[in-house]
Amino acid sequence: MSETTVVAVVTILLVVLPLLWALSGWLSRRSSRALLRGLGLALIPTGLVLTGLMRLLVRAIHLVVDWFAGTVMTTTIWIGVIVIAIGLVTWFVAGFMSPVDRETGRQRRQGHAARKQARTKDASPESASTQNTSRRTTPVTRGRTADAPKTPADAPVPTSPSSSSKPASSSNKAAPKISAAEKDEDAELEAILRKRGIE
Asked: How far is 191 from 199, CA to CA, in rounded Å?
């Protein structure tokens, strides 16, 4: 088969197939987008024939076929062929996916920014709470060791006479009373915390 015949066959195929695709898109969906894309793809091979570039394209295809026929296929070459095939399949699959318009893209960006901001807000209270607890523990321990009044361990807790006459079951249910020494200790701890700016 001569080169001119191959050029003619390839040109006819590259013109007819896009026209059929455009016609099917117009008849099935009345889509002017598919019609225009098919016409554009049909015009490209016509221009290649008129400029003589189609002959170069056919020669390039012939050289590729000769290269495959005369080359010993090694593992590296097969990996390259597989990578090329994966790239072409990925490109075709991406063409079938629905395009994202500007409004949808803007909404996706805003949603991503909102999720990122929520994650940073969730992380910041945790770190702040750990810092506050570490700040609170040190003054409290110092206040209790240095500034708190020392009460004897065996000092009797003042009780009312009515509490001694009550049965044991009712004394268990009653709320524990806070002594005056514990109130003074709490007041001193609050004063120390206020001095250090911790409330």
From this structure: 10
Say whether pTM exceeds 0.85: no
For 7, other C-beta atoms within 10 Å of its C-beta total: 20
Nearest by Cα to 193 from 139, 152, 150: 139
Predicted confidence pLDDT, tens digits, the chain (199 residues): 788 888 999 899 999 999 998 888 888 887 788 889 999 999 999 999 999 999 999 899 889 899 889 988 899 999 999 999 999 999 999 888 887 778 888 888 888 888 888 888 877 666 555 555 555 554 444 444 444 454 444 445 555 444 444 444 444 444 455 667 777 888 888 888 888 777 6
Contacts of 44 (CB under 8 A, 6+ apart): 14
Q: How far is CA 127 from CA 68, 113, 131, 132, 162, in A?
A: 63, 21, 6, 9, 50
- CA 37/CA 17 separation, integer angstroms: 12
Query: Residue 36: CB partners within 8 Å, gap ≥ 6?
Result: 22
Phi, psi torsion values for 160, nearest 5 degrees: -80, 155
Q: Which two tokens stand for residue 12?
A: 């006819």
Polymer length of the chain: 199
